[in-house]
Design goal:
It is built from seven helices and 14 strands. With 267 residues, the chain is α+β, with helices and mostly antiparallel strands. Strands 7, 8, 9, 10, 11, 12, 13 and 14 form an eight-stranded mixed sheet that branches. The structure holds pyridoxal-5'-phosphate.
């Protein structure tokens, strides 16, 4: 089955800026042949990248975790040149370094998100040696989304075989208990150190831990957090309809994120 491709409108390959039809990758490269490499996706607001430093820091950690030396300086200058090669956009910059050392960056349209989202749980065991690593091996994440769609939901939610809630394939999850406590899975549970999650945890009172799926199924409201979603209200998880959609805790998280954004790039 051929999959949907991200809507790319400009590439940079090893520092050369290229149109989509002009960008090619010499083979062999284990980045493609084995998904061996690392990546990041950062958001650009009106031509200004948000939290690019933290994205490169995380990329460096991911690279170190798989024994790859990140060409950070070159990638940073590639990103600067690529972003300034187009009119200021509200878009995404994807940054990849493969095992062969290829530097591939793309500018992409923002994905279209519906105002609220439904989730289907998918059983998943984090691969211990790639825990918290944004490697190019994302086929399991993409397959989980397809499984969720087959089950009639918009997106998947990874739940460990022992019932502990993890995260959707490309975002973090938060929920509010009936007592009003905001919760999110701890990084140690086996989730990515999401930069959006970090901004919310820094600004709101959030309990981090290993929580059972049943706890989430008693939540009053829930939302996803990610670079592309910011704080995205969840309306249903499997058969459970959330009593509140875009409730006060979701709006507080959206506001906390807006403050982080304003502090980073200005209004
Ligand atoms: C597995 C996973 N979790 C969470 C996130 C959200 O991270 P961020 O907020 O840094 O975009 C991502 C981003 O793609 C991800 O791949």
């Amino acid at each position: 089955m051929l999959g949907a491709m991200a809507d790319v409108f400009k590439f940079s390959v090893d520092g050369e800026i290229l149109e989509p039809g002009e960008a090619f990758l010499p083979l062999p490269d284990d980045g493609l042949l084995r998904g061996d490499g690392v990546f990041e996706v950062a958001r650009i607001y009106g031509g200004r990248p948000f939290a690019l430093g933290p994205h490169f820091d995380r990329m460096k950690k991911s690279a170190a975790a798989i024994g790859l030396e990140l060409e950070r300086g070159l990638l940073e200058s590639d990103a600067g040149r690529l972003i300034s090669s187009v009119e200021p956009c509200d878009c995404l910059v994807r940054i990849i370094q493969t095992r062969s050392g290829r530097r591939i960056l793309s500018l992409e349209e923002l994905p279209a998100h519906t105002p609220t989202i439904t989730l289907a749980s998918v059983r998943y065991s984090p691969t211990l040696i790639l825990n918290g690593v944004k490697s190019l091996s994302y086929a399991a994440n993409m397959q989980a989304t397809r499984l969720a769609k087959e089950a009639g939901a918009d997106e998947a939610l990874f739940v460990r075989p022992d019932g502990v809630v993890l995260e959707p394939p490309t975002s973090s999850i938060f929920w509010a208990t009936r007592e009003g406590q905001l919760r999110t899975p701890a990084l140690e549970a086996g989730v990515l150190d999401s930069i959006t999650r970090r901004k919310i945890v820094e600004r709101l009172e959030v309990e981090e831990g290993e929580f059972q799926f049943e706890d989430l199924l008693g939540a009053t409201e829930a939302f996803l957090a990610s670079t592309t979603r910011e704080a995205h209200p969840v309306s249903r998880i499997d058969e459970y309809e959330l009593p509140k959609v875009d409730g006060e805790q979701t709006r507080a998280a959206a506001e906390a994120f807006a403050q982080a954004l304003a502090a980073d790039i200005g209004d």
